[in-house]
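Quick illustration, no need to memorize.
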Amino acid sequence: MDGSVRGSSDAAAGPPPYFRGNESSMVSALKTLLFFTILMVTLPIGLYFASKAYIFEGSMKMSSSDSYFYAAIVAVLAVHVVLALFVYVAWNEGTPKGKGKHD
């Protein structure tokens, strides 16, 4: 019974000490996530309508049904590019910036 009482008081003491120093990295990660979330919403939609109106219907004189198809392909490619950039940034977020040899 003593172990359960002591365990509950340890949990109420707060986060472990190693977590307290990572607030700036947590804020940085949330800023990165927010940036890529906004980019994921706006870029494909914007490219869809811009490529449909200006490239496929405007410059190439395609029909409306063909321009829908090709504009959707452009939007899907934009989604893949944003996802690849997010994975790249998230992968390299915690690495040191110096490229020299560390002793």
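The chain has a mean pLDDT of 83.
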